[in-house]
Every structure is written in structure tokens, then in C-alpha cells.
Amino acid sequence: MKEWPDFVKDLTGPLRNLRGGAPEVMKAFADIAQAALSGKALDSKTKELIALAISVAVRCDDCIAFHVKAAFEQGASRDEVAEVLGMAIYMGAGPSAMYASHAFEAYSQFEARKAAPPAPPSA
């Protein structure tokens, strides 16, 4: 079973390397993300839920990890995530059902980590 919170952390190094190797492209990508997430008619939580549904539909585990984390941090509830995943399954059929299970597992893990007290440091 994939540990989604750790998976997100593990992606930071490769993404940092990509930013170093293609800084102009990655800066442009970050600018697109910032423009897309800026609040106008839809709030940021709704936008992250939309991004999550698209992540499932295009079958991108890395995208699922980032957008579940962002939706969770924006206050998305378990029920909201489940409804969004239902729409992704409806639009993407069987393959989306499989990836929706990944997204729901990821949400559960972020939820559990927030509820669990931090582990004491090793001696």
C-alpha cells in the first residue's frame, strides 16, 4: 500500500531537480498554477476538488497525491472528496474507479496523520 503523505514528500526532490534543470518552464508552470488557483468565481477548495477529479480521470498518481493534500488542507471533507471521486468515476468509467480508490486512500492517510500525535524522536 502506498503511503500518500510520504509519497508527496518524496516528490519534492525530483521536482526541485526539474526546476533546476528547466527553470523557465517550471516558472511558467508555477505562474499558470497561481493564475488558475486565484480566487474569482470559485474558491480554492472547489478548484482543488476539480483538480483531484481530473487527476483521477487522467490516471496521475503524482497529481492525485498533490491535489488530495491541497484539498485536505483547504478543508475539503471526506464527503466532498467522495462526491468528487464519484463524478470522476462517472466521467472516466472503470479506470477512474481504480484511481479514485487511490485518491480516497490518500485522503484517509492525510486525515489519519493529522489525527495522530507526532511520534517522539528516536533515541
CATH class of the domain at 44-113: Mainly Alpha
* Sequence of secondary-structure elements: HHHHH
The pLDDT mean sits at 90
Distance between the termini: 28 Å
Strand content: under 5%
Named CATH topology of the domain at 44-113: AhpD-like
The total count of helices amounts to 5
Oligomeric assembly:
single chain
State the share of residues found in helices, binned by percent: over 70%
CATH superfamily of the domain at 44-113: AhpD-like
Biggest pleated-sheet summary: none
Say how many strands there are: 0
Weakly predicted, low-confidence segments: none
Q: Which geometry do the CA atoms define? A: globular
Radius of gyration: 15 Å
Q: What CATH architecture label of the domain at 44-113 applies? A: Up-down Bundle
Q: What structural class do helix, strand and pairing data support? A: mainly alpha
Keyword list:
AhpD-like, single chain, 5 helices
Could you give the topology of this structure?
Elements: H1 4-21, H2 23-37, H3 44-57, H4 61-73, H5 78-115
Helix pairs in contact: 1-2, 1-4, 3-4, 3-5, 4-5
